[in-house]
Amino acid sequence: MRGRKRGPSPLPGAAGRAWRTLGAVFVVLVFVPPLLLLVSGSFTQPGLPPSPTPQLVPDPVSTAGYQQALALGGLRRASLNSILVAAVAVPLSVLVAALAGFALARLAPRVTATVVAASLVALMVPATALLVPRFAIFRLLGLTDTLVPLIAPALLGTSPLYVLVYYLAFRALPGELYDACLIEDLSPVRIWWRVALPLVRPVTAGLTALTFVLTWSNFLDPLVYVYDRDLFTLPLALRSLSVLDPTNFPVFLAGAVLATAPALVVFVLAQRRFLRHDDPTERT
Questions:
Q1: b/e string for 210-248 if b means 16 or more Cβ within 10 A?
Q2: Domain ABC transmembrane type-1, which positions (predicted)?
Q3: How confident is the model at residue 16 (pLDDT cuts 50, 70, 90)?
Q4: What is the dihedral of CA 277, 281, 283, 284, to 10 degrees?
Q5: Position 128 in a domain
Q6: Which of 262, 259, 255 is nearest to 68 (CA)?
Q7: Is residue 127 part of a domain?
Q8: E strands of the chain, at which residues?
Q9: pLDDT at residue 1 above 50?
Q10: Of 188, 167, 177, which is closest to residue 283 (Cα–Cα)?
Q11: Considering 16, 106, 197, 224, which has the largest number of Cβ atoms within 10 A of its Cβ?
């Protein structure tokens, strides 16, 4: 008996798009309501008692919380310090991690396995366990109470995780691509910069956004290394703002909005490439 004719098969990327849509809806449902309440609370008139129920639109709407946060919390100076740290540490960290990941992908398999195992062991070490030796080193070098200890980890790629992510991305590229580059007599640095790195732009966008958020919200390192109020970053300034008047929550919420907005902007700019699932071999 002649079989029934099958209908057209679904598009290959339909399932992936459906899962991404569900993920986006989940993120919106989980994160948007707290953000709306944060913004709404920041426009509440300072000095008034808190409302017994959450209000999406406060009555009256006031920007006095932002004015007091900027005037009392030193957020202007702290914002400049955070921008300086992020502007140096984020691109430096991404470039070092990308270069290390490319080198790791091009090493001999036995050497690569050893380095990957060592990186996984390093990831298991808690960051707090390194505070004392790092503090001793920076103090010996006379770098405490400066912004250098906040930027120096970028010279090592910040985290072994970033190197491993780039290693997996570069390893996924076809070996024939590297062989063709060698036939063209390209140096390893040119292969990395002109061929391999452009093919892993979604990884670069994602790690850039992640590094920026972690650097921008870093509280522990500034707390340990920075003592001068003029060198405070935004997390330290928010802590100082919260202890001035713990009951005046609109002022603190206004400072939290100012500190959260740059991270949201960076994520929005990076999300298109961060969520892409293109096969790099199809573009070669």
A1: bbbbbbbebeebbebbbeeeebbbbbbbbebbbeeeeeb
A2: 79-270
A3: low
A4: 160
A5: yes
A6: 255
A7: yes
A8: none
A9: no
A10: 177
A11: 197
Q: How far apart are CA 242 and CA 231, in angstroms?
A: 18
Residue 256 lies in a domain: yes
Of the candidate ranges 46-50, 190-194, 212-216, the one whose mean pLDDT is the lowest: 46-50
* Between 220 and 248, residue with greater pLDDT: 220
The answer to whether 238 touches 255, Cβ cutoff 8 Å, is yes
CA 156 to the chain's CA centroid = 16
What the block records as the tokens of 150 is 């906040």
Per the domain annotation, does 126 fall within a domain?
Answer: yes
Kindly compute the dihedral angle of the four CA atoms of residues 111, 115, 116, 118, in this order, to the nearest 10 degrees. Answer: 140
- Specify the DSSP class assigned to residue 61: B
Number of domains, the chain = 1
pLDDT exceeds cutoff 80 at 153 = yes
CATH code where residue 198 lies: 1.10.3720.10
**Against a cut of 0.85, is the pTM above it?**
no
Q: Report the Cα 238 to chain-centroid distance in Å.
A: 19
Contacts of 213 (CB under 8 A, 6+ apart): 263, 266, 267
Read off φ and ψ for residue 189, nearest 5 degrees: -65, -40
- What is the domain extent for residue 65? 34-283
Q: What is the mean pLDDT of the chain?
A: 82
Non-local (6+) Cβ contacts of 127 within 8 A are: 220
